[in-house]
Amino acid sequence: MLLLDRTVGNIAHITIEPSDRDPVSLYGTDAGTLVAVLKSTQQRSTLQSAAAFMPAITAIAHVRTVVGEILGSGFLTKGEAIAPVAVTGVEADQVSAISNIAGNLVAGSADLTIGNALIGSGLAKILGVRAGQTVTIRSERGIEQSVTVGGIFTLGVAGLDDAAVYLNIRAARVLFDLPEGLTRLEVKLDDLRLAPAVATDIANATGLKVTPWTAKNQQLLDGLVAQARSGDLIKGFALVTIVIGVASALLLSTYRRQSEIGIMRAMGATRRFVVFVFVIQGALIGLIGGLIGAGLGYASLLPFPLPEATGGGGLPIDIRQGAYGAAILLTLIGAILAAIWPASAAARVDPVKVIGP
Amino acid sequence: MTGTDPLLVVTGLVKTFDEGDASVTVLKGLDLTLERGEFAALLGPSGSGKSTLLNIMGTLMRPTSGAFEMLGLSLIGAQDVDLTEFRNQHIGFVFQAHNLLPDFTALENVMFPAATRKGRETVADRRRAVDLLSRVGLDDRRDFPASKLSGGQKQRVAVARALMNNPELVLADEPTGNLDRESANRVMELLVQINGADGTTFFISTHDEKIADRCRRQIHMVDGRVVDA
């Protein structure tokens, strides 16, 4: 889960865009219906009544944040240097709602008042720009603005770090000549794994074109699922090792303690009593082993800083996600199961054969 | 059952051991009766079937055929769990090699038959175990691990353990076989004294004529049969 959060934490969990227009039926026949959809190149597709949808979307379960955005492309120039950019206009207080811009600043601040821009570190390097310097941005509409680079960020995603520019939404409206409406809405959830289900809920509630992050990142998702399965396999093998280890230890104990088992049986201990003794022994081995293992695991993770303390560059290791209780419980259950076979073998010991003269 | 009924009656007892294609018959139609309060020695050469008879009488082994009754109950065909419970309540064992649990103290060894029967230790059981250890002269050794005791002391702990559940019958297989003469005499005096005081029946398998001479009844076995009882 940590790796998943780390990998897709800086993208929207759900994207909401204007729906395609209803196709026009040219004519109907018994064999089917012929329709035509004309992708307009003359008119931009915008969410004209986005404000009306916001409360309904926010009210849907698991939705944490909804951010309205104006998107456009253009060029950023500094002297003779020029670079193509993707511009995102958002409200100043929502600049870090989707991508954690404020938490990944390498220079300047996350202040997004009108006249300020936040740019990726790759873009800053291409243009040779530092925080506090002025650059010119020219939109696809041919409109130019001079803005001050208020902050430079590194998200660790080349596509964003090399081309992203964040502007105040009002500045973006002027730049792209879009006095009302939004280009899209982006949604953050409290659990990114629920994105497909919540996307369906939003589509049903709004009728808009809703895309969960999983639809756009199928390969990434497949990779993460495979990674999770690898982890499960490792845990499974660890559990098998525990079972084999405990079973071997108890079988050895059964062999070495045959005479004692025989004495107990001769003194009136029932087979059930012998099974009970060995299962308890297995449980104790599992409990003590689980406690030691969890303790060693915790101790070995202590040197690693928490993920939020390392920004984006640290190892995806979080000491809080050790699942220590579950590890101890699984070890205990595994050890008890492993003890059943040796215990039944011990219960079958014939006292006559093992009590010597 | 009345007080004059025999404690144990064995009739036509046969025990055959199968070893692959071969089979060996060790007990060949043995008849034996033990009365309550007897102090009997079982004598016979090696291979005559003494240990096999003791194992069957102790419900540790099932006979191939024949009848076996104790306290008026037929033990032939009884379930294993019932035999275990019967053994725990009515039969005590003293083995040649004492067979104490080495990690247990003397007191814990003595208490074991009662604890395994009830699933826990009771104050009354602890008191009885302390009394028994005192009776066998090991008052000062009760908290010693069994592995730290001498041979004679271990055998006296084994005697105390055999008496813990106040059994009607104590089976002793060469109880002095591993002891020096002085320790052997002390153990035998102990058995005689307990038999006289409590009326517990003792059935002692031995090669030692001096030990057998101290028993009121001598039973001789030859080739799987009782020849002189």
Would you give an account of this structure?
The complex is a heterodimer of chains A (357) and B (229). The longest helix of chain A has 39 residues, at 218-256. Chain A is built from 13 helices and 12 strands. Chain A has a 6-stranded mixed barrel. In chain A, strands 2-3 form a two-stranded antiparallel sheet. Chain A starts with a helix and ends with a helix. Chain A is 45% helix and 23% strand. The model of chain A has no long low-confidence stretch (mean pLDDT 84). In chain A, a hairpin with a 2-residue loop joins strand 2 and strand 3. Chain B has 7 helices and 10 strands. Chain B has a 6-stranded mixed sheet. In chain B, strands 2-1-4-5 form a 4-stranded antiparallel sheet, with helices on one face. In chain B, strand 9 (217-222) and strand 10 form a beta hairpin. Chain B is globular. The interface between A and B is medium-sized, with 19 and 29 residues.
Main β-sheet description of chain B: 6 strands, mixed
User: Strand sequence of the main sheet of chain B, in spatial order?
Assistant: 6-7-8-3-9-10
What does the radius of gyration of chain B come to? 17 Å
The total of helices of chain B stands at 7
Q: Report the end-to-end length of chain B measured between terminal Cα atoms.
A: 24 Å
Shape of chain B: globular
Q: What amount of the residues of chain B lies in strands?
A: 25-35%
Number of helices of chain A: 13
Low-confidence stretches of chain B: none
Largest interface: A-B, 19 and 29 residues
Mean pLDDT of chain B: 90
